[in-house]
Amino acid sequence: MSRVDGRLSRSGVVVCLYAMLVATTALSLGCGEEEEEGDGKATGGRPGGGGYGRGGGRGPAAAIPVKAEAVVREDMHAYLETYARLEAERQVSVLARATGLVEQLSVEEGDPVVEGQLLVELDRAQASLWLRQSQASLEEARANYERFQVLSENNMVSPSEFETTRLRYNSSRISVEEAELNLTYTSIRAPISGVVTRRMVELGDLVRSNQEMFVVADLDLLLVRIYIPERRMYQVRSGQRATISVEALPDKVFEGQIRMIGPEVIPESGTVKVTLEVPADGLLKPGMFATVRLITDSHPQALVIPKKALVLETEEDDVFKVVDSKVSLVTVEIGLVQANRVEVLSGLEAGDLLVTVGHDGLKDGTAVRVVGQQIAVAVSAGANAVSAGDSLTRHRPPGGNRK
Length: 403
Fold this sequence. Notes:
conserved putative lor/sdh protein from methanococcus maripaludis s2 fold, Elongation Factor Tu (Ef-tu), domain 3, 5 helices, rod-shaped, disordered N terminus
């Protein structure tokens, strides 16, 4: 009997222990769920902060990623833009004034010359021969004139004969002067100081009178002649500044100014001719195709925003300003527009952050997350803190911090 009672007692003990284990497990699971729900409230629930609440509904929508740039202060200019060819201020064609063979070439294209410098020497033989012949005729005419002068004083010749002799003597003197001048024409010299831009003769060529031989240009100062519409003529004035750029030097901008404005409107085109001068600086050359921008208005240190910050879907000039990770639709007043920059007259302040990429789907109050270069500094500065926080989150035991 005692054995049976002993067995029954041990069985009862086992059943009791099993019941207690089941009850303890159920209680632990219930407490764990409540604790997890409590942790969900404290930590924001699921990753990303969206999570689900107790009632099974979703949390707030995720922030929209956008790119943004700050409002800055820069000098803004209004331009009147046109195109033209550069010209030399002074450009002279050197013509032959005598006929002869080219015996000497003293310069080549690109050589600098000064006024009066020898360029070409022509054959002098024929010109020298004419000079000697003229001098001989002059000696004969002088002798006749002196003899007739004595005869006239003694009333041995008529006044008309003496006058004819005098005129012949004067004509001979002029012929000598002309022959001397023609001899000097065999030496062709630079009419101005500058650079030889073109040479059209070769050694040994037969040059005839009035034949073009060289082009000499003064390249220190260049001119640009442009034609502006009649309605814009009162926006320009003498001395007004301009910028000149050429395709050959895309990274350089040259300063010029208006020298003179045409006094009339050209009827055929309805335009006014404006002549500008620009220093060559040893870089610009005549014939270059130039872009000319006349500065018609200047606003120093104006508030400037990127043109792509303007919202195209609205009728007003609106922008999205980022404030506390949300966007605010702001209407602005714009002024000068220069390429991809826009002047803001009112509505913004320097330093305001404006959305430039990602306008689609935005409305007033939408949560946004600024990405890109504008937040690179902030990310870099907080990199260690963020990494540490991520490390703690990643290594947190499942179920939160349980006690």
